[in-house]
Write a structure and sequence with these properties.
Helices cover about 40% and strands about 20% of the residues. The protein has helices spanning about 10-25, 65-70, 85-90, 90-110, 145-165, 190-200, 220-230, 235-240, 255-265, 265-270, 280-285, 295-300, 310-320, and strands at about 1-5, 25, 30, 35-40, 50-55, 75-80, 115-125, 170-175, 175-180, 205-210, 215-220, 245, 250-255, 275. The longest helix is centred in the N-terminal third of the chain and has 22 residues, at about 90-110.
């Protein structure tokens, strides 16, 4: 099987590549070729004996998507995108990458006249307030309150239409906020959710720009990769016409995140969080969904952590070698 991953140099792209190499198969078929593309060069996966193509460039640029699709990869994981905070502050870039790049990829598939499996990473940012207190179902109206959410919602509609017309076999997964993200902070408005855990565990100070009462839904990078792998195996019959669906996660307040950090790492580590309100981030987060009703995803076999403690433990195991900076 030939697999194409866009956004392959990003955190989820790297972890997905590692998982595919480790498993050696996708949907029971051997992974024989990987095409990894991003605006910067992705790492060549260690221990993979198949063919690896590393491509760099703008997916929305003329001819770029066509080159990637020329070899007709059977499975495509479309992860490339500009994160929420940057999409809000850089209007043109957000639409160019998140929307134009997606449409270029879909059009290249249509022109190639074959029917690959396409897994698209959407976001719960497609939803907009006010929200039902019992949680957001998959058929909740899409009224995004950010440019990022709007770009993802439009891309979902495109994916569904190309799927309906038989151009591809698609599934869109609305990711909750992925936490704890390893590495350095990025421009995502949601980045502080990871920062207030990641930095204190590494012995560094973290800034909290919103109130402790902010509630949100999270899943670990480990779960995010699991979502992608599982989505690639879902059939058209199992999905039906509603191919975009919200993923499960752990719904907690910021205060509950901090309490979990205290339980696992101690009060001294949690004391490294410094409160510094940020008006832009507070406004963006206020328009995001809080509680996700992911019953349909769970019924289709998607799984996530059951507590925020589990999310922190996954980060310590996967990224810190089991060690905490006290």
């Amino acid at each position: 099987m030939h697999i194409l991953i866009t956004g392959a140099a990003g955190m989820i792209g790297r972890k997905l590549t590692q998982r595919l190499v480790k498993d050696g198969k996708l949907n029971g078929e051997p992974v024989e070729r990987l095409t990894l593309t991003d605006v910067v060069a992705a790492e060549r996966p260690a221990g993979f004996n198949g063919k690896v193509d590393i491509a760099t460039g703008d997916l929305a640029a003329s001819g770029a998507a066509e080159k990637l699709i020329a070899a007709k990869p059977e499975a495509i994981f479309h992860l490339a995108g500009v994160v929420s905070g940057e999409a809000e502050t850089n209007f043109e870039k957000g639409y160019h990458v998140n929307l134009d790049g997606t449409r270029a990829l879909l059009e290249a598939i249509r022109a190639a006249a074959y029917k690959p499996k396409v897994v698209f990473t959407s976001s719960i940012a497609v939803y907009g307030a006010p929200f039902p207190p019992a949680g957001i179902p998959d058929d909740f109206h899409l009224t995004p309150l950010t440019s990022y959410g709007t770009q993802k919602a439009i891309s979902e509609l495109l994916l569904a239409d190309y799927n309906r017309r038989g151009i591809l076999d698609g599934v869109g997964i609305r990711l909750p906020t992925i936490c704890v993200r390893p590495g350095k902070p990025n421009k995502a408005a949601s980045g502080f959710f990871s920062g207030i855990i990641r930095e204190p565990l590494a012995g560094q100070e973290a800034v909290l720009p919103v109130a402790d009462t902010v509630r949100h839904t999270h899943a670990s990078p480990r779960s995010a990769v699991g979502f992608l792998i599982h989505a690639a195996g879902l059939t058209r019959d199992a999905l039906g016409p509603r191919i975009n669906l919200a993923m499960p996660g752990v719904c907690v307040t910021v205060a509950e995140q901090i309490d979990a950090l205290k339980r696992i790492a101690g009060a001294k580590v949690a004391a490294r969080i410094r409160r510094e309100p940020d008006e832009l981030i507070t406004r963006i987060v206020a328009g995001w969904s809080e509680r996700i009703n992911a019953e349909r995803a769970r019924s289709l076999g998607f799984k996530a952590e059951s507590s925020f403690d589990d999310i922190i433990r996954a980060h310590i195991e996967d990224e810190l070698g089991g060690k905490i900076a006290n």
